[in-house]
Amino acid sequence: MKRTLSAVVLLASLCTVQPAQAAEKFALPPYTPAYEPTTVDERGQWMQADEIERQLRDSPLRIREGKLEAYLLDVLCREVGSDRCKGIRIYAMEVPDFNASMMANGAMQVQSGLLLRSRSEAELAAILGHEFAHFELRHGLNGFKNRRGTGDAMAWITVLGGISNTPVGDTNLTLLGSIYQFNRAQETEADLLGLKYLGQSGYPPAAAAEVWRSLMAEADATSAGRNQKAKVKYSAGFFDTHPASLQRATYLAAEAAKLPPGGDARAKEFNEAVKPYLPRFLAAQTKLNDFGGSQYILDNLAQRTGWTGDLLFARAELYRARANPRDLQLASQFYRQAKEAGYAEPELDRNLGLSLMRNGQTDEARAALSAYLTARPEASDAKAIQALMAN
Asked: What is the rounded distance in angstroms from the CA atom of residue 292 to the CA atom of residue 277?
């Protein structure tokens, strides 16, 4: 009886302490606004970050149209709070890789591949918060020290040259992320602090794990599209700097379950913000020679919005690029469906005509190509199209 009573008392004491412990565990660390570098290493790091930011600002890869960068900053501020996001600059870059990175001076670059793969503001916020956590925790300084004096000058020149001179669509901008690589412990620390941001923001914390589950599924789809075995790494190797995707999804889901469930993931708001840029994001994705992964992305988008004209056109482009006779037939079908769904760019008729021509359907091909030339008489490929029609 005494043991039972003692157990009850102990259980009651744990229950009374647990909320306070939980509140302490998930409280955000104190934040220092308007932080300035203090050491020689930090000042050197910030000088290099300032130079890279100038290149980002002026890069042809930067998406200046519309209010995309302002929207991204709004999402970050919603997640980490207005005090933390003051002074942050975000640059949206047209690079089809799933990536974002933040530098020590408060500049963040967000790549279009991340926006194409995110399914809600909550998922986008999970990645932005992770990168902001690296910034708040000053993780970049250790990496900077480790790389100092080891031939990094050439790496910096390569990065700056790639950002300033690379044409749109090239993925050399991902070199920027290599400058701010972190070790596995730092990645996990940033994951968990980012999860605290989500928990404080009202976004569903479970979104952080969903990001990695979706990336694993995309990687498997890529392998299937190439008739390869799935290559998703379910455990991290000794020299890997990031936790494996499955490991991340598992511990993020477990930690998210301890937080309040959150509210609206704001998928509708995210879809509306990205919608004007979707055709160019899709065009960059379909050029990556990744049939399975691209089809997975298109299916995900269609689940949210239905098969719109933009998505059907991108699907047709995907099949036309693979170019098997059956693929060309399907591409022609998807082009027609895209036109019925309201896709009105003349390039649809050109690409429909080219697909039909390759499959020997010359009469319909000529009609489509003629419609393209009527709409684009001064097109750079007009003479080549006319010659093709004449054969």
From this structure: 22
Residue 158 sits at the vertex; the CA angle it makes with 155 and 159, to the nearest 5 degrees, is 90
Q: Which of 196, 224, 256 is the last residue of a domain?
A: 256
Tokens 């102990």 map to which residue? 10
Q: Which of 33-37, 260-264, 270-274 has the lowest mean pLDDT?
A: 33-37
**Tally of structural domains, the chain:** 2
Q: Which residues contact 28 (CB under 8 A, 6 or more apart)?
A: 193, 196, 197, 200
Instruction: Check: CB of residue 59 under 8 Å from CB of residue 169.
Output: no
- Which CATH number covers residue 344? 1.25.40
Question: Per residue in 18-38, is it b (16+ CB within 10 Å) or e — as a string?
Answer: eeeeeeeebeeeeeeeeeebe
The whole-model pTM stands at 0.80
Name the one residue in this structure whose structure tokens are 């693929």.
327
Please write the tens of the pLDDT for every residue from 305-315.
Answer: 999 999 999 99
The residue assigned the tokens 């955000």 is 28
Q: What is the DSSP string of 229-267?
A: -----SS--TT-SS--HHHHHHHHHHHHTTS---S---H
99 band by pLDDT with thresholds 50, 70 and 90: very high
Rounded distance, CA 75 to CA 268, Å? 14
For residue 44, the Cα-to-chain-centroid distance in whole angstroms is 29
Q: Is residue 69 a part of any domain in this protein? A: yes
**213: burial class by Cβ within 10 Å (0-12, 13-18, 19+)?**
middle
Find the domain containing 164 and state its range.
31-256
pLDDT reading at 371 higher than 70: yes
Q: What percent of the chain lies above the pLDDT cut of 70?
A: 77
